[in-house]
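wait is this the right file?? whatever heres the structure
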């Protein structure tokens, strides 16, 4: 295995000090143009790669930003990550992406690992409403921005979607079908987005003069399998027609699968809506009706806000709420 060239190797080869090499590589004005050219050409010839971690610890700061989300394989999160990475990269920051899998204990370990790396800041989707990670970051004065959720609406720094509005738009649309029942497959009850979407769901039902039954809400749905099982549970006790609002497009995929296996027509017998607007679901049959979320822009805003915090700039907006939009396709 080829040995990596170090600053000391360059210094020894050119008979100069390590300090001189470091200054030349970093464009310091103390170094003559001829010496700088000599050092840069040698470094390029032998493929010198700066040790960013060592450099960061020497300077008591890093250019590394930790990103902790629930699951980066989810296309919704993948789009947000793209916005984050492109923005941070353009400003000279590197990213480490981690998944907490909605496990608070695992999340605490991930945060501790990032603290050990002396990260410049953290972008965090707190697992299942976990507040301890934020407390730990504050204890060590690490700037952070919450992504998609918050713990304390009035005090946290975050970028989220107007979740109450998102569920309201979806439920209002489903209410127009004049079905007697509108079910809601919701996410984890401890999470702010779930709480707000439940409020929006109830707002729309009330506006439509539909008297809600608590059994219509099925919480703790996280993925396609949960959506599938929840739909089967609904079908055990309820005959179509009815409507179903899903917390996410991922959950909606499972719900639709359960309906199709039982040859139930969509949307004639059961109208289904997702939330998120995952790109691929606009190209499969039936094309999913959903509530669109500006995922890429949300990621960009998160990164921009964190950079301002890292640079200790005055932030006019520390709590950013983005607008959702209704996207009507074929499932409702």
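ok assuming it is, sequence goes like this
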């Amino acid at each position: 295995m080829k040995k990596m060239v170090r600053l000391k190797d360059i210094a020894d080869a050119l008979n100069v000090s390590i300090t001189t090499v470091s200054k030349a590589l970093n464009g310091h004005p103390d170094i003559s143009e001829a010496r700088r050219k000599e050092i840069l050409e040698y470094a390029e010839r032998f493929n010198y790669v700066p040790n960013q971690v060592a450099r960061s610890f020497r300077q008591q700061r890093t250019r590394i930003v930790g990103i902790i989300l629930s699951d980066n394989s989810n296309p919704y999160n993948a789009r947000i990550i793209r916005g984050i990475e492109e923005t941070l990269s353009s400003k000279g920051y590197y990213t480490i992406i981690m998944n907490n899998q909605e496990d608070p204990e695992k999340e605490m370990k991930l945060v501790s690992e990032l603290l050990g790396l002396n990260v410049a800041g953290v972008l965090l989707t707190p697992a299942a409403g976990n507040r301890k990670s934020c407390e730990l970051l504050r204890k060590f004065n690490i700037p952070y921005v919450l992504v998609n959720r918050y713990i304390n609406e009035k005090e946290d720094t975050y970028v989220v979607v107007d979740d109450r509005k998102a569920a309201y738009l979806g439920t209002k649309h489903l209410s127009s079908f004049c079905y007697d029942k509108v079910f809601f497959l919701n996410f984890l009850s401890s999470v702010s987005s779930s709480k707000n979407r439940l409020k929006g769901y109830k707002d729309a039902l009330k506006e439509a003069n539909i008297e809600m039954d608590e059994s219509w809400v099925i919480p703790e749905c996280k993925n396609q399998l949960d959506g599938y099982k929840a739909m089967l549970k609904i079908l055990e006790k309820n005959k179509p027609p009815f409507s179903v609002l899903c917390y996410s497009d991922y959950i909606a995929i499972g719900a639709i699968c359960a309906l199709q296996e039982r040859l139930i027509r969509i949307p004639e017998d059961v109208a289904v809506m997702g939330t998120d607007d995952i790109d691929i679901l606009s190209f499969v049959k039936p094309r999913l009706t959903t509530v669109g979320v500006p995922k890429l822009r949300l990621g960009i805003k998160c990164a921009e806000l964190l950079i301002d915090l890292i640079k200790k700039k005055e932030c006019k907006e520390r709590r950013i709420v983005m607008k959702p939009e209704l996207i009507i396709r074929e499932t409702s």
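Residues 180 and 203 are 16 Å apart (CA to CA). so i think its the right one actually
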